Amino acid sequence: MLSLFASKSSKDEWVATGAAPPRAFAWFVQQVSFPHFSSDVVGRVLALALPLLDQVTPATQVVGLSLLHHLLKHGTATDIRWYSDLLVHEMEQTLTTAATSASFLDATLACLEDLLAVLSPSKQDVTLYDRYFPSLLRQWDMSLDVAVKTVFTAHVRVWVARLGAPHSLQLLRYLQPLVKVTLGCVESAERTLSLEALKTLQAVIVAAWIRMPGHAEHITLAILKCLAYVKVLLLPLPNASNDHMQTKAAEHITAQCHATLYLLDQATAQETMAVRVTLQHVTVGCPSLAPICDSARQYLDDKAAAAASNSP
Question: Which domain of life is it from (predicted)?
Fold first, then answer.
């Protein structure tokens, strides 16, 4: 079958936009699973898949990406590593154009994460992650499409976990821009983006807890802005019925904000008490936000009391 697909189409026909043979080939390959991908089969599939990735049309690139991702899941790590330099270069090129579509970007980042897991099996070896992460941060920061930005925000959590504690401290090199972009998403008026950003922020706090005292004030203020927006979201509109879905979303965001503040408080309480100090300063300086600060403080107190009662 591999010989048939390789011989029946010229290169131009193979990479043409909307061409049927590559899609038929992708379907055929995806019916094969481990352990049937020998080293020879892996090489021959890549020979047909990589020209598709080299194109500039997302519809064509996605087919090549699906083939590569299937190989990563079902081929052996040893066979994949034979092509490591080539695959790293191809994915680097693909990432530069992936932000044209949220679905294409989602597929690209999922494939890239699995590729790096195969090529860098040691959790202490983050050299390849360093090659991609600065570009990833730049594209995430510059993206104006909310759907694309949301995909970046969700996938960054994987990188944060792999670059941060307890496996590595390499994340600290990128902490300043990482916190800046994440907080910008936290403060977004788009609920889905804000929720994803809060989850990513929690991952950052856990992975880079050692540096959180220096960022605690800015993070706390960003979360308070998010909570203030949620409060506005819950205000009833004239002649409008209560939107149950909107209320549930607001409650979910509030819960994530409080959970993030608790994590941050745990990471900084021993040194600075920065979260509680910032809440107090905002309460005094902006009385209209006092109820939001009081609610956050009450959540922290309740969590601390629950932890104390459960300790031996």
Answer: Eukaryota
Biggest alpha carbon–alpha carbon distance for the chain: 75
Q: Does residue 166 have a cis peptide bond before it, meaning omega lies within 30 degrees of 0?
A: yes
Look at residue 273 and tell me if it is in a domain.
no
Residue 87 belongs to a domain:
yes
Answer whether residue 66 is part of any domain: yes
Closest CA to 254 of 212, 308, 156, 262: 262
* Sequence-distant (≥ 6) Cβ neighbours of residue 36 within 8 angstroms: 74
User: Rounded CA gap, 206 and 193, in Å?
Assistant: 20
pLDDT of residue 28: 92
Q: Which helix (H) or strand (E) holds 216?
A: helix 216-233
Q: What is the pTM of this model?
A: 0.91
Q: What is the mean pLDDT of residues 293-303?
A: 95
Using CA atoms, how far residue 191 sits from 101, 105, 148, 219, 262, in Å, is 20, 20, 14, 18, 21
Q: Which tokens hold the place of 261?
A: 């503040």
Dihedral of CA atoms 236, 242, 246, 250 in degrees, nearest 10, equals 50
Whole domain around residue 11: which residue ranges? Answer: 1-119
pLDDT confidence bin for 173, thresholds 50/70/90: very high
Per-residue pLDDT tens for 73-122? 999 999 999 999 999 999 999 999 899 899 999 999 999 999 999 999 88
